[in-house]
Write a structure and sequence with these properties.
The chain has 13 helices and 33 strands. By secondary structure, it is of the alpha+beta class. The chain has a 16-stranded antiparallel sheet that branches. It has an eight-stranded mixed sheet with strand order 18-25-26-27-1-33-29-30. Strands 23-24-28-32-31 form a five-stranded mixed sheet, with no helix packed on it. Helix 3 crosses helix 13, helix 4 packs across helix 13 and helix 11 runs parallel beside helix 13. The longest helix is centred in the middle third of the chain and has 26 residues. The N terminus and C terminus are likely disordered.
């Protein structure tokens, strides 16, 4: 940070104005604080351990057993279906029992949490019968050679392994006999007991007992089960350590790290501490939010992986979705960027350069080949965002040819829809519908047209895969992102001085957005609701609408306060279940999508509605599993209609769809928690002249910093304005808030959103002792915050916000 020359002080109102609002009770809080108890976690949850940017990912089941797949990106076939990695051909069953005269009694899992609340290690707690015998299982991944000062690379050659610590504790007054059974497979070959190791007949390790803790080891089930027995004295404990080296020949077991289990745990902790220390930090008064930020950034990193050529993929999940989607890349790379980890973000973006088709098409997922044009815009947006965060102009020059070719593809292929259903077009010249492996949703409606009338999707991109509960056809979300890709390509051309390219790209962007708006206007007339809303698809406006919010953020095609957006929010709020919108994807009205809801909630931030944003955030976090991971959708009412009749949606209440952890969900946690404190805003509807400004504290409800001594801060978060900023807000007394803001190395136009307790108003604002005109202060529509136009900041300044009570509604 730059040397401090001044501080920023916010004078608050008396504590009587800090009473919590009803919305916090509805959101699951008490007394103005936050309660995140995972009350709506899906019943078929699973967790994950792994190394950042590593090839091995191990699922931890709810009973504490482990599963993994040999089908990493480094050895996948050239053409594989989605779900290639869900073939769990590796497993370790961990089965603990109490031995008693009446037979063995299995211990039962009572909880699963993260190690110390934020490390991506899984702590499973089990109890026996009697309940005085307890077991804590800690599963984590470690690299004995890891350097906490640096992230791994494609060539670092890490010797990773999974480690399991099992601590049996006897809280009773008599000795308890314990039995631990281990069995499993590797590369689908069963493990055989050889001394204290489970290995396949082909000589590959499944698991090693590195420290039996005094237990006796034996072979059972014809050598397929490794059994450990011990007696735990009253008030005593027994600790057993297991190691699972990644794809390791038993002939090399002498080469496995000799570090103790405790030393490996310390190594793993140090690696994550080092990773977080290199990046941006956020701090809210409620520690659970900080833990979510850290652990979510960890899950995004774990769900990256190098392929055989050394390209870093951002993956959507460890099993079914061990794949790459350009639209998801934008949000996952952005999470790394706002988290201050620009190097892996850059590597993941550069991977997209190598999957572009020779005609400029960016499709996805690349090995499945479904035509989904939102990927072309997602990849382009990710390229442009990395430039904005890094301001590496030389890198942009290398990336520019890919942006240009993608925009050329969009320009050229928009022509297809101008010849659909048009009389007089020769059959040989009519566009085809791209091949897909099978229809995934309901058919697109094709209404009868009058002679000479254009199709509802005239000038949009061609027919394509719908996804997310949208029928195959002409989804608006595909076009929102593709148009945005064209706009950022034009901006890149201007930065690089390519004036001719910039001219045609800007013109094409204008024509494309005009076609989108004309199509939307026609689609709105097909709506049946009382309030017009931004539609999801030209002829099925009521289709699942989560991706429709791409029109607001990040593309800026529609303003967050546009009447159609307000109508969409009204429709969404009227269909909520468990605090989250339904009808967002495959499940339709029967389910919710927690991770995606946080992406949608960015719209509330842009509308300066901090309370609705916070309520949706809390509801989403309460739908995560207790290890802070998300499943895609969760069924809430299976008696209601599904958007699509697929295996995704044919489940029971409380069950989830897709993969877990869902990287998109955790990326959105990082993005939203950061944006609530530091947010870039670009004027919408977006044009080439749209200005971007910085908004501070826009998502911070007054109730979240109501106690004296509470602190909110952000350290070293990069912004798209080309500067790294920090801020610290402290409640120094019941009547005062102190804010210190460092705008970094680049002058930035900044707005400060002062959280207003109910019934308060801004009486006076001073900057460096000089009074600010009231015209520079505006109160949000709901009276939740006062927005102060601070001007262009190039260094720390002093703001004095004097607040006072008011009768009735705040002005």
């Amino acid at each position: 940070m730059q040397p401090a020359s001044r501080s920023l002080v916010v004078l608050g109102v008396a504590s009587l104005l800090l009473a919590p609002q009803n919305i916090w009770a509805q959101a699951g809080s008490s007394g103005g604080g936050l309660v995140i108890d995972h009350r709506y976690a899906n019943i078929d949850a699973q967790s994950l351990i792994g190394l950042p940017m590593g090839s091995h990912k191990t699922t931890v089941e709810k009973n504490g057993s482990l599963r993994w797949s040999q089908w990493s990106l480094k050895r996948k076939p050239l053409d594989v279906p989605i779900g290639f990695s869900s073939q769990m051909d590796g497993a370790l069953a961990i089965e603990p029992f109490v031995e008693a005269d009446g037979g063995n009694v299995a211990l039962k899992v009572t909880s699963q949490t993260l190690y110390k609340g934020r490390y991506p290690f899984i702590v499973s707690k089990l109890v026996g019968s009697p309940e005085t015998l307890r077991l804590e299982e800690l599963a984590f991944s470690a690299d004995p050679d890891a350097d906490p000062a640096s992230l791994p690379t494609a060539t670092s050659g890490a010797k990773g392994l999974d480690v399991v610590r099992l601590v049996f504790t006897n809280e009773g007054t008599t000795a308890q006999k314990i039995l631990l059974k281990l069995s499993g497979r590797e590369r689908n070959l069963p493990g055989h007991v050889v001394n204290d190791v489970l290995m396949t007949g082909a000589g590959e390790d499944v698991a090693q007992v590195s420290d039996a803790g005094g237990a006796t080891v034996s072979r059972e089930d014809e050598g397929l089960t490794l059994a450990l027995r011990a007696s735990v004295a009253p008030g005593g404990s027994k600790t057993i350590w297991l190691r699972l080296p990644y794809e390791w020949s038993a002939a090399r077991n002498s080469e496995v790290s000799t570090l103790s289990g405790d030393a490996l745990l310390a190594k793993a902790v140090a690696q994550w501490d080092g990773t977080w220390a290199r990046g941006a930090r956020v701090h809210y008064p409620d520690q659970v939010l900080n833990d979510f930020f850290d652990s979510s950034l960890a899950w995004v990193l774990i769900l990256t992986e190098y392929d055989a050529r050394g390209d870093l993929w951002t993956l959507d999940g460890p099993d079914v979705y061990r794949q790459y989607w350009g639209r998801g890349e934008y949000f996952q790379a952005r999470a790394l960027e706002v988290g201050g980890l620009l190097s892996p973000a850059r590597e993941s973006v550069e991977h997209a350069f190598h999957i572009m088709n020779d005609d400029g098409e960016w499709d996805g997922p690349p090995t499945s080949g479904w035509p989904a044009w939102d990927n072309i815009g997602g990849n382009a947006a990710a390229v442009w965002d990395y430039y904005l965060y890094s301001r590496d102009k030389e890198w942009l020059a290398r990336a520019y040819p890919f942006l240009l070719r993608s925009s050329e593809w969009v320009r050229d292929h928009r022509e297809e829809t101008t010849y659909e259903n048009v009389a007089g077009v020769p059959a040989a010249a009519r566009p085809i519908r791209r091949m897909m492996t099978g229809s995934k949703c309901r058919a697109e409606i094709e209404p009868a047209l009058k002679p000479g009338e254009k199709t509802y999707w005239y000038g949009l991109l061609p027919w394509s895969y719908g996804d997310s509960g949208l029928p195959e056809g002409h989804s608006y979300s595909h076009n929102f992102l593709a148009a945005y890709g064209m706009r950022v390509s034009a901006e890149a051309a201007r930065v690089l001085g390519k004036t001719e390219d910039a001219a045609w790209l800007e013109k094409e962007y204008g024509a494309y957005t005009t076609a989108i708006r004309e199509s939307v206007d026609r689609s709105v007339k097909l709506e049946k609701g009382a309030v017009p809303y931004l539609p999801a698809q030209p002829t099925r406006p009521e289709a699942a609408y989560s991706q429709t919010f791409l029109a607001i953020w990040p593309t800026g095609l529609y303003s967050a306060n546009d009447p159609l957006v307000s109508g969409l929010l009204t429709r969404m709020e009227g269909e909520e279940a468990q605090g989250l919108p339904t009808n967002v994807a495959w499940a339709g009205p029967a389910g919710i999508w927690p991770g995606e809801s946080m992406n949608m909630s960015e719209t509330y931030l842009l509308r300066d509605d901090a309370k609705k944003n916070a309520a949706m955030l809390l509801a989403a976090l309460n739908h995560s599993y207790t290890t802070n991971v998300f499943k895609e959708e969760i069924l809430t009412d299976v008696t209601k209609e599904r958007a699509c009749d697929t295996p995704h949606s044919n489940r029971q209440n409380g069950q989830g769809t897709g993969d877990m952890p869902e990287a998109w969900g955790n990326a959105n946690v990082v993005d939203l928690l950061r944006d609530m404190l530091v947010q870039e805003r670009t004027e919408a509807p977006a044009t080439m002249e749209s200005k971007t400004t910085l908004h501070l504290l826009a998502g911070l409800p007054a109730e979240w910093i109501g106690k004296v001594g509470e602190v909110v801060n952000v350290d070293r978060t990069p912004t798209t304005l080309g500067t790294v900023v920090s801020l610290k807000l402290t409640r120094t007394s019941a009547a005062m808030l102190q804010l210190e803001f460092d705008p970094g190395s680049r002058a930035t136009e900044t707005f400060v959103h002062v959280p207003l307790p109910e019934g308060s108003r801004v009486a006076e604002v001073k900057i460096d002792g000089r009074a600010v005109s009231t015209s520079a202060i505006k109160v949000s529509a709901g009276g939740q915050e006062a927005v102060v136009a601070a001007g262009v900041l190039s260094h720390r300044v002093t703001f004095d916000f004097t607040l006072g009570a008011t009768m009735g509604t705040a002005r």
